[in-house]
Design goal:
Largest sheet: 6 strands, parallel
Strand content: 15-25%
Radius of gyration: 22 Å
CATH class of the largest domain: Alpha Beta
Number of strands: 14
Distance between the termini: 44 Å
CATH topology of the largest domain: Rossmann fold
CATH architecture of the largest domain: 3-Layer(aba) Sandwich
Number of domains: 3
CATH superfamily of the largest domain: Nitrogenase molybdenum iron protein domain
Shape: globular
Order of helices and strands: EHEHEHHEHHEHEHEHEHEHHEHEEHEHEH
Number of helices: 16
């Protein structure tokens, strides 16, 4: 029998943590090299998203808007705005792809962006991502699905050395890179879609780019159909894998709910060993497994006497809670901004679909918070420990290089949580 999920039925969110589908779509398009995201909606929606991710990544974010207003939406449905926006974009830059996606206003009006896309003579992918449905994860996944559906060519040939990685939205650029490198050590040519590991990874470019710089190329997306193996990470990405398999029925697919901690990483390594026939993984992989085992022992005492609140998107929430649980930590409360079937498998005593008001009402149930920057004020007021994870994190730099996945990232995360717990206890002792 699955875990009972507590849903908040308040008429409004108080201190919300939920992010919108268009924000997830923006990140997905930024994982395509030379792509210009074009948000079909109001200027305010685009400005918020641009500032939000610019502050989180400390990088300039390329994004354009169709600048639809209430009046324009009613009078012409927004079609003219899209066409004119594409003309304006291509007059200034030459993107490899324009990524068109919607917000709530044109979706409520019922704009036919597919019909508009057929009338635009320029490489363009469209996705319906209304912000009154889903959240960050679903916006990313819907856009990934659109990229595959509209660009990837069907084929019957198979390249067994080619592997497609489908990472969920909460994986930071360095985490995608670490997973790619791990798989590549077994001899695979790995292509991630979307791929932030070479676009928003914090590298210093020659000049500020007007388009996304780095990521998977449009040509690579078109040729994904001959890959022999697909690995999806995060339950939100399973639908993308199924769409890609339709391009070539000979593709094999393996799914991982997360790649955090000893057991999940062991399963990945076992899969790669079986698939390649290798007798053992590369020496650094073996060494990091031993380090994670030692990290679990070293942090066990601190984590074992600590109660955690974890706040994150469902795919990230599942992995973080499992990693803490495996090292002896007790996740007493887990909060997700949106519902998901996988929450029933979450390694937490109480799982809530809600906001930070729900967290505040249960303040006596936890000692340390793992969550985004919106949790910072809560932690200070309640005198709780804090480990910052997820979107946004505007106070710290280097978010794109935080690694919690595989053996290496698991060790780093457990040490950080144990140190936060010890620091909290020292602070509480000094206050007495």
């Amino acid at each position: 029998m699955g875990k009972v999920i507590h849903k908040s039925y308040k008429p409004l969110q108080i201190n919300p943590i939920k992010l919108s589908q268009p924000m997830g779509a923006t990140l997905a398009y930024l994982g395509v090299d030379g792509c210009m995201p074009l948000m079909h909606g109001g200027q305010g929606c685009t400005s918020l998203t641009k500032v939000y991710f610019t502050r989180h990544f400390s990088e300039p974010i390329a994004i354009q808007t169709s600048a639809v207003t209430d009046a324009i939406a009613v009078l012409d449905g927004g079609d003219y705005s899209i066409v004119e926006s594409v003309k304006n974009i291509t007059r200034k830059v030459t993107p490899e792809l324009i990524g068109l996606y919607t917000t709530g206003l044109p979706e409520t009006k019922g704009d036919d962006i597919r019909g508009v896309a057929t009338r635009i003579d320029y490489p363009l992918v469209y996705a319906n991502t209304p912000d009154y449905e889903g959240g960050l994860e679903s916006g990313w996944a819907l856009t990934c699905t659109a990229l595959i559906e509209q660009l990837t060519a069907p084929t019957e040939t198979v390249d067994d050395n080619k592997l497609v990685l489908l990472p969920h939205v909460s994986l930071q650029p360095i985490e995608v890179e670490k997973i790619k490198h791990c798989i590549e050590s077994f001899g695979f040519n790995v292509l991630a879609i979307p791929d932030l590991s070479t676009s928003l990874d914090g590298h210093l470019g020659e000049k500020q780019a007007a388009l996304s710089s780095g990521g998977i190329t449009v040509d690579e997306i078109r040729q994904l159909g001959d890959a022999g193996l697909i690995i999806s990470v995060g339950d939100s990405m399973q639908s993308c894998a199924h769409v890609l398999q339709k391009k070539n029925r000979s593709m094999r697919h393996h799914h991982f709910s997360h790649l955090q901690g000893l057991e999940a990483t062991d399963h990945l390594i076992e899969l790669l060993l079986t698939d390649t026939g290798f007798s053992r993984p590369a020496p650094p992989v073996v060494r990091w497994r031993k380090r994670l085992q030692d990290a679990m022992l070293d942090s066990h005492f601190s984590l074992g006497q600590t109660r955690f609140l974890v706040v994150a998107e469902p795919d990230q929430l599942i992995g973080l809670c499992q990693l803490l649980h495996d090292a002896g930590g007790k996740v007493t409360v887990a909060i997700s901004p949106v519902n998901s079937p996988q929450l029933k498998r979450c390694a937490a005593e109480t799982v809530i679909v809600g906001d930070l008001e729900d967290a505040e009402q249960r303040a006596d149930c936890y000692d340390v918070i793992v969550g985004n920057e919106h949790c910072e004020d809560l932690a200070h007021r309640l005198q709780k420990g804090l480990v910052l994870r997820g979107f946004p994190n505007w106070e710290q730099v280097g978010n794109q290089l935080k690694n919690d996945v595989l053996y290496e990232g698991g060790a780093y995360f457990l040490f950080e949580c144990a140190n936060a717990a010890n620091s909290m206890r020292r602070h509480q002792a000094s206050e007495r």
